[in-house]
Amino acid sequence: MIGHKMPILLALRQTETVFSFLVRWRKWQGFLSESYLCQRLYAKRSIRLHPYLPPQLAQIGEAIDVLPEHLLLNHTLFPLFALFNQPKRNVLKSRMLHAGNSVISSVGIPHAQIPVKFGHKWCPLCMQEDMQKLGFCILVIEHQIPGVIACAKHSCLLQFLVCGQNAPDRGLKMKLVNPQVVFSGERAANFSAFCCDVLALAKEHADINVQEAYTEQLISNGYITNSGRFRMKRLEQDFYSEVLGSPHFLELDVVSFLKKKSFLGPMLRRKTGYPAHPLKHLIFSFWLFNGDSTKLILRSHKGCRKALQAKSVECVNNEILDLLRNGMSMNHIEVNVGKSRCYIRRLAELNGIKHQSNAMKYPESTRRAVQIKALMGKHRQEIANELKVGIGYVEQVISNTHGLAAYRKSLRMNVALKRAQNEITGVVKRNPTWNRTQVRAAAQSAYSLLYAKNRELLDSCLPKPIRPSPPKKKVKTVKRNQK
Fold it and tell me: Closest Cα partner for 209 from 287, 284, 301?
C-alpha cells in the first residue's frame, strides 16, 4: 500500500521494516539530526525503534497515509507473536499502535532468557539486488525473525546491525558494508524458509490453534497415549537428539541455552503450562512437522482435541466389535487394539455378543435374577449369597446393564434423604419449642444433606419460621443536674 503523501521513491516497500523506512525518510528529507523526524512523529527528540515490535504505529500511519493495521500485519512481527500467544493479541496490538514506549513487556513471554542477538539483520545478496533495482537497500521483516540466521532466498548467513547504547540505530542510520558472502547450510536455509511460511500463515489465518495442531501431530507420531498423557521422556530424547545434532541451524548461544533446560513440558501442557517465546515454538514445530508449515492450519477450530478423541474412541469400539463378531479371542484383540480384556468383555456384553470368558458360565436365568435383585436395591454381597455366585460376577452384571448402576445410585440417595428426614422429624417432635436454628445445630449432617439435595423436603420437616423482629431502640436518658 502506497500513501499519496509520500513520493514514489520514498514509498513504503513490501515487508520493509519500520526502522528501514524511517532511515530512508530521514535521508530523503535531508535532516541533519534524527531529532527533527522524531519530534514530528513521536513528539520526542530521540527514540530507539525495536527491530520487529516498534511502538506508536498509529502516528506513523497517519503521517505517511498508511493504515496502522497494514503496518502492523505486514511490516512487524505482530502476527507471529500473536499466533503463539493468543490471549495477549489484543493487548499487544493496542500497545504497538498507541503505546509510547517499548511493547516487549506486554508480550507476556520470558523474552530476556533467550540469548538471541539483538539487532537489525540483513542479507548481503538481497542488498546487492536492491541497489541494482531500486538504487537503495532496505531491511525486510522476514530477516528479523528471532533465531533465523540465514536468508531463505539466497541460503547465505545474515549480517547484523547491532543495537544498543551509542549504536547506529539510535541515530536512524544504517551503515551497511559489503561483507564477504558466507553461505549457510541447507538445514539453516530450510528453517528460515519454514519461519517465513509460518509468518505468512499467521497473517492470513488469525484463528490458528497451535496447541491443537501440536496435539494432532503428536498423537499421530505416538507421543501421546490413548488417555491423553505425554510420553515426555521419549519426546525430549527424539527432539534434542535431532535439533541439537550437527549441522546446527541456530546460533551457538541458543543451542547452549536449549541444552540447559527443557521447555517442551511447560510449552505443551495446558493446565500447568505458560507462554513460550516464538523461537521455541518455531524450533519445535519445524522438527514436529518436518518443515511443513501447512500442518498448522489443519486443526484451527476449537474443540478439536475432544472431537479427535471421541472419533478415535468410536473407531476403536467399532474395530473391537468387528473382531468379536469374527470370532477373534480377547487375548488377540487386547494385543492388536491395546484395550484391556475387561474393557473388551464389557463392550461385548453391552452389545449382546457372547464370549467364552468365565462371566458366561452362568445361564441367562441367573443373570436375569441378578438384575431383578439389583433393581430391588439389595446389596451386592446379599445378592451373591442368595444366588450362590461370586460378588465379582454380580458387579460385572450391574455395570454391564444399561442404566442399572445409575438407578441403584439414585436408590441410595433416596434412602439417605429418607433417613435424614426421619432424623430431623424426630428432633422436632422431641423439642416442639425449638426454632430452625436450634434444629440445625442438633442435626447438622441431616440438615446439610437435605439443604443441598431437596430443599422442599427440608422445609416440610422444619418448624415454621419465626418472623424477624426489629432491634429495640435505645432510650437516651438525660441526667439533670441536681441543685
Answer: 301
Check residue 340 and give its pLDDT.
81
DSSP 134: T
pLDDT-derived band at 244 (thresholds 50, 70, 90) equals confident
* Half-sphere exposure at residue 287, Cβ-oriented, CA atoms within 13 angstroms: 21
| Residue 300: predicted pLDDT | 40
CA-based torsion, 299, 305, 310, 311: positive or negative: positive
How many Å apart are CA 93 and CA 96, to the nearest integer? 5
Distance CA 311, CA 295 (A): 20
Q: Which cell numbers hold the place of 323?
A: 473382531
What is the three-state SS of 53-82?
CCCCHHHHHHHHCCCHHHHHHHCCCHHHHH
Q: Where does 253-370 show beta strands of DSSP type E? A: none
The grid coordinates listed for 37 are 523526524
Residue type, 32: L
**68 or 471: which leads in pLDDT:** 68
Q: What amino acid is encoded at 424 in this protein?
A: I
Which residue shows C-alpha cell 445361564? 363
- Give CA separation, 354 vs 324, 330, 336, 348, 389, in Å: 9, 12, 20, 7, 19
* Nearest CA-CA partner of 259 in 243, 275, 246, 273: 243
Report whether pLDDT(331) > 60. Answer: yes
For the full predicted model, state whether its pTM sits above 0.70: no
Q: Cβ neighbours of residue 180 under 8 Å, at least 6 residues apart?
A: none
pLDDT tens digits, one per residue of 158-214: 988 877 666 666 666 777 777 788 888 888 999 999 999 999 999 988 888 888 889
Contact 158, 151 (CB under 8 A): yes
CA distances from 302 to 128, 270, 305, 378, 454 (A): 46, 14, 8, 46, 38
Q: Parse the chain into domains and list their residue ranges.
A: 18-181, 188-300, 303-352, 413-461
